[in-house]
């Protein structure tokens, strides 16, 4: 992206229920990467070294629901775009934060997941005109599929 399109500043928005320690370990340079990670701190992996790369470590807890979760995410998005001014967004739209997911242990409704995704695109594309690459991850129950389809 940097070589072909000239992008220099990348915002990684990781809204999967698990810590994104893989991409965090790969993107430790905070002048180039701003990472928002909204993960359930009470579950795997708990990688303290990788957590050093996180610019906005959102304190998500067991069984957190829509209103509180979306409020925390929106504040982080506003701050990231205002302070970091990214050229490109990579959005990890995990669905293991949905109610009933046995591994994420959060409590977002189907509509909460949809609202979350709309919130990310509103801040990235509509308000700030920053292109977004959205990837899917997580989601360990059959009821997740219709939400992301």
What would you call the structural class? alpha/beta
Give the CA-CA distance, first to last residue: 27 Å
Low-confidence stretches: none
Tell me the fraction of residues in β-strands, as a range.
Answer: 15-25%
How would the global form be characterised? globular
Series of H and E elements: HEHEHEHEHEH
Number of strands: 5
Alpha carbon gyration radius: 14 Å
- Biggest sheet statistics: 5 strands, parallel
Strand order of the largest sheet: 3-2-1-4-5
The number of helical segments is: 6
Q: How much helicity do the residues have?
A: 25-40%
Mean pLDDT equals 94
Structure notes:
The chain has 149 residues and is an alpha/beta fold. Strand 4, helix 5 (110-127) and strand 5 (132-137) form a beta-alpha-beta unit. A five-stranded parallel sheet has the order 3-2-1-4-5, covered by helices on one side. It is globular, with a radius of gyration of 14 Å. It has six helices and five strands.
What is the topological layout?
Elements: H1 2-5, E1 10-14, H2 21-26, E2 33-40, H3 48-51, E3 56-60, H4 66-83, E4 88-94, H5 110-127, E5 132-137, H6 145-148
Parallel strand pairs: 1-2, 1-4, 2-3, 4-5
What labels would you give this structure?
149 residues, alpha/beta
Concise description?
With 149 residues, this protein is an alpha/beta fold. Helices cover 36% and strands 21% of the residues.
